[in-house]
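Chapter review: from sequence to fold.
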Amino acid sequence: MVILPGNSGQFRQHYFEGAPDVIVETLGPSNRNTDRLTKYEEYEAAGVQEYWMIDPDRQYAEFLQLDESGVYRVVFSGSEGVYRSRVLNGLWLEARWLWERPPVWDVLKQWGLAR
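The token string follows.
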């Protein structure tokens, strides 16, 4: 989960009270339905701006963003291609990186953060 500095929620001793800005779930056989149905609805109702569902077994990712009416819309899905975050300003990633796991240095170079 990502909580940005401007978020109006509050940190408590053992939890965050409020909606995180981004939640990333790794799907697997034991949690696939929960993350796709129950958590999806809970995060949408709470106002989590971006919900990323990563399924390494199927090499498939879905990136959802809340629209103006507070409803999730799939803005990217698949195994290849580039996702650009609306919430994490300037962050983009190639979906294949989630399965191929390239060296961090190579990713930093593509982001322009290393030579």
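Two observations follow directly from the output. The chain has a mean pLDDT of 94. Residues 64 and 108 are 24 Å apart (CA to CA).
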